[in-house]
Design a protein that fits this description.
With 160 residues, the protein is α/β, with parallel strands linked by helices. 36% of the residues lie in helices and 12% in strands. The strands form two sheets. Strands 1-4-6-5 form a four-stranded parallel beta sheet, with helices on both faces. A two-stranded antiparallel ribbon has the order 2-3.
Length: 160
């Protein structure tokens, strides 16, 4: 296994999965310990000249994107802790997000919006009727598993 300090990330876009599932109250981070724990790794990548694309989940949203589950407070806190602007993507997939990732320069950071706004993050179908048959549940699960391939390929496309 190779470690980040052994990799040449200079000028490369690096996709980094972190755990920013931090407690929020009224849109304010109550405990930023998970964010602080990620700082040494983020700084190592940035000092190595990486363009950093960060992804995480937050909470347990059950449908459409909801402001109370946005990672915007995390982007603001990361900006403070890193001492550099952390750009916030409006989503975690899509052409606008790809353009933002491609525009990054070494030492810059982009935080993708909450991955859990998509069923593919957990691999569990959403919106099934409670009375759905076993066959319907099985088909829905298979559909999500198939769409996970596209979702993960899209995320991977943001990095070198």
């Amino acid at each position: 296994m190779r470690f980040l300090d052994e990799l040449n990330v200079s000028g490369k876009r690096v996709l980094m999965r972190v755990d920013y599932n931090v407690p929020l109250k009224d849109g304010v981070i109550v405990d930023d310990n998970r964010i602080k724990q990620s700082l040494p790794t983020l700084k190592l990548a940035l000092e190595g000249g990486a363009c950093l694309v960060i992804c995480s989940h937050l909470g347990r949203p059950t449908g459409a994107p909801a402001p109370e589950f946005s990672l915007k407070p995390v982007a603001a806190r990361l900006t403070e802790l890193l001492g550099l602007e952390v750009r916030m993507a409006p989503d975690c997939v899509g052409p606008e997000v790809l353009a933002m990732a491609e525009a990054l320069k070494p030492g810059e950071v982009l935080l993708l919006e909450n991955l859990r706004f998509y069923a593919e993050e957990e691999g569990k179908p959403r919106g099934l009727a409670p009375e759905a048959s076993d066959d319907e549940k099985k088909a829905a699960k298979a559909a999500v598993k198939e769409s996970q391939k596209k979702f993960t390929a899209t995320l991977a496309s943001y990095a070198d």
